[in-house]
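Study the following:
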Amino acid sequence: MYITGLGWVTAGGSGKGHNSDPFDFKRGGISDISGAKIPTHPAFRKGRLDRISLLGLQAAANALDDAGLYEWEEKRGTGIIASTVYGCLKTDLDFYDSVNQENGNLPEPNLFTHTLSNIFLGYAAMLFGITGPNYVLYEKSSSSISALMSAMESIELGETDTMLAGVCDIEPPDNFDGAEDVIPGALFAVIEKSPDNGKKNFGRLSLDGKRNILLNKTVINDMAMCVRECLKIKNY
């Protein structure tokens, strides 16, 4: 398997791997969530997105664009898996606040439609014509590698030849326990079983006998390390 595209949105900025954009997965608020790469669709309104959906979609779009898979005409079996610590908890709390408004105001319906953590994966499936495995993993680490492992296993099992895998978390709710352990941002990698000859890639992924993930024989411990190692390799 090969990593053929990288995309991210962090406190350090938004970028793609083949652009040689600076990658900085650091603590802090995320201001650059413009949604510039999110395509239009007659059944989709970008202005209604909650913050985590906007973040995840922009990073996923960056990765697909970096891999040359942004444009599509027919649906494809590509899958997408994302790890998260808090998921859409901030949106859930905002919706709960709207339920408990005074003066008999109705709950906010737009917030209600985003109170599931996998909502943005459904948007990604619609906007990019992807029909493969599609789910969220809840993890303890903001740079978990579980999504990458699960994506590789899906390819090994023959479920698909292409996967999008990464992590996605916005800033935790105010005064929330453990908030200091979470680094906000979204990082995604496109993994292809056998990319077209001559297609740019960042190196080969494999699993050893102990199910460790190797990138060109280097053991990868988290998603941020994966991105950094890919940008060092630049095998294209």
Summary: The chain has a mean pLDDT of 88. Residues 51-66 form the longest helix (16 residues). Helices lie at 51-66, 89-99, 109-112, 119-128, 146-156, 223-233. The first strand starts at residue 2 and ends at 10.
